[in-house]
Amino acid sequence: SLSNRLSEIMKKVRGWGSLNEKNIRDGLRDIKLALLEADVNYKVVKGFIDGATESALGEQVLNSITPVQQFTKVVYDYLVKILGEEDHDLKISFGGISVFMLVGLQGSGKTTTAVKLAHYVQKNYNKKPLLIAADVYRPAAVKQLELLSEKNGFSIYKEDNGKPVDICLSGLKFARENSYQVLIIDTAGRLEIDEKMMNELIEMKNRMKPHEVILIADAATGQVAVSVAQGFNEKLGITGIFLSRMDSDARGGAALSMSYITGRYIKFIGTGEKIPDFEKFYPSRIASRILN
Amino acid sequence: NSIFGGKKEEVLSEIEELLITADFGLEFTSEITGAMDNKMSSFEKDDHIRLLKDIIRERMTLASLPEPPTELNAHLIFGVNGTGKTTTVGKLAYKLKKEGKNVLIAAADTYRDAAIEQLLVWSKRAAVPVIRQFQGSDAGAVVYDACDAALGRRVDDLVIDTAGRLHNKEMLMEELVKIGRILDKKLPDAQRFKLLVIDATTGQNGLSQASLFNEYVGVDGIILTKLDSSAKGGIACAVSGKLQIPILYAGTGEKVVDLINFDVDKYLDMLFS
Ligand SMILES: Nc1nc2c(ncn2[C@@H]2O[C@H](COP(=O)(O)OP(=O)(O)OP(=O)(O)O)[C@@H](O)[C@H]2O)c(=O)[nH]1
Ligand SMILES: Nc1nc2c(ncn2[C@@H]2O[C@H](COP(=O)(O)OP(=O)(O)OP(=O)(O)O)[C@@H](O)[C@H]2O)c(=O)[nH]1
Ligand SMILES: [Mg+2]
Ligand SMILES: [Mg+2]
Questions:
Q1: Are A75 and A52 in contact (CB under 8 A)?
Q2: Cα–Cα distance measured from residue A51 to residue A256, given in angstroms and rounded to the nearest whole number
Q3: How far apart are CA A42 and CA B21, in angstroms?
């Protein structure tokens, strides 16, 4: 694991006795390899190592009484800084209806996460959620959301025909008329390079004015995490990221890549297929997991 | 792009960046750049790319010539969650039907909500019948019935959809092993293809997925989906090289026709275009 690798590297670093420019660069080279193995994007790793090198070669580290601890701290702190320092909460409106739009690639976990989010919002904010079935493309997508929602006691708004944007607008109207407080929109999976499908999301965002546009991504995403996050963020604008399938043994380097490139934070993670398998994201935990 | 003539180090480092960014991974990439380093003598631009393609091609396991045809072929489709299995079952059934085969689909994902409904839509698109039970039924029982139906109806190709499962979930992997055993026992004379579906957007975790699925149930071939995305799917090449498993098909979109026979040369041309 990345943290095992990191502790191996640190053991070697401790063996150096004193720090100088050469062994700091060696240590960072090992860390670079460990990050690449964890699926952090190539260009992100380069930017990370350049930034960490600068801090590591600073006065503070080289003249420190405990240079090795300082060096370790520099790397760890830099990682946590990119991932967000503390946990980040949902943007919930305490007055009107909060609208959350879930977007992402095909199969990333949006439909499952939509119901997990409904459960979380109900339990932690005591707000009544309404799920909107805005995926009119995928066979049985509406049925899937319907079954999952009903099983867990949530209402959904769906239509047999109609465009996703219109379904959302009707869903908002329905929510107002029936005192729902949180609207969770499940959208169809799409490629960030699919202009027509991205335009649909842009229109949906403009008309629904969501409090959160959340990118749902698989924890095991590879190098393409940067293009995907950047694509969704530049075309649509995202307010946060959720990582699904963190219960796999994936190192999760995609998390670092996506936060780094968008400046947005990972707020929640999916840790299983069941509705309660949904937790807040703590940067220090994945920093350790990525490093090991 | 200095692959087109430059100092050796520059060329190798450019290739390293290209391959890593395509998800070939550190290990496979360094194997390839190491071989490039040894064989690169001239600095003609055409030689570099051709040499690189040759080095990669010879390391990937290519699909072997088709076995002598048997009465029945069974295709067991499995992989982690969300990779495109159900969609691929529909596409594969459609492809085989178009080739004039008598095809049957087995809906052995009895876990996920609306999985059977989803597969029914695909089976209509492929014009292929489905053997199914209900959500919550035993997946092995569905496979058992499907095998009987395949034999009874003189089916040429049986395509079996299974539930997504993470390779590090032991109980789920044991269920797949059980399904595999039922298939082996019920259709001993059939050609049984155990096919792992890998999502092209997956990173190095694909190696862990493939080696565990191979360990538990054995993998005869890889289906690489979502190749129409911005991902290059290099992880499937790394898996093919490391575990000696051929990539048989690739998914190139969300329509029933979007399944191609995987062609290594076309893929490498696309990668280095
Ligand atoms: N193990 C695990 N599986 C998950 C998690 N989140 C989602 N899944 C599974 O991943 C698969 C895909 O989930 P969906 O919710 O259908 O994904 P989606 O993004 O809505 O897919 P599309 O609508 O086709 O784009 C399903 O089998 C889910 O059960 C998770 O956190 N852990
Ligand atoms: N762009 C693209 N999307 C694909 C491809 N193959 C499948 N998909 C999409 O990926 C999503 C997931 O497909 P499924 O067939 O439900 O995946 P699955 O592996 O059966 O999912 P689980 O049963 O939940 O594990 C759907 O939105 C599909 O339309 C492909 O080749 N290209
Ligand atoms: Mg969905
Ligand atoms: Mg499926």
A1: yes
A2: 14
A3: 6
To test the pocket of ligand 1, the residue of A214, A273, A279 to mutate (highest count of ligand atoms within 8 Å of its CB) is A273
| Cβ-contact A122, A155 below 8 angstroms | no
Angle between helices A21-37 and A42-56 (to 10 degrees): 150
- pLDDT for residue B1: 47
Chain B contacts in chain A segment 110-149 (CB below 8 A): 137-141, 143-144, 146-148
The C-alpha atoms of residue A13 and residue A8 are separated, in whole angstroms, by: 9
pLDDT tens digit sequence for A45-100:
998 888 888 877 775 665 665 666 677 777 778 888 888 877 788 999 888 999 99
User: What chain B residue is nearest to A222 in terms of C-alpha separation?
Assistant: B203
Residue linked to tokens 């929109």: A185
* pLDDT tens string B131-151: 999 999 999 999 999 999 999
From B24, B23, B2, B4, select the one nearest B13 (Cα to Cα).
B2
Q: Which residues contact A183 (CB under 8 A, 6 or more apart)?
A: A97, A98, A99, A100, A129, A130, A132, A171, A172, A175, A208
Q: Amino acid identity, residue B2?
A: S
A193 CB within 6 A, ligand 2:
no
Q: Tokens in use for A109?
A: 């976990």
Number of continuous H segments (helices) and E segments (strands) in chain B: 10, 8
Residue A223, phi then psi, degrees to nearest 5 = -55, -25
Sheet with strand A182-186: strands edge to edge: A155-157, A129-133, A182-186, A98-103, A212-218, A240-244, A266-270, A278-280
Three-state DSSP class for residue A192: coil
Contacts of residue A140, Cβ cutoff 8 Å, sequence gap at least 6: B114, B115, B117, B118, B120, B121
- Return d(Cα B28, Cα A46) in angstroms, integer: 20
Ligand 2 touching residue B226 (CB < 6 A) = yes
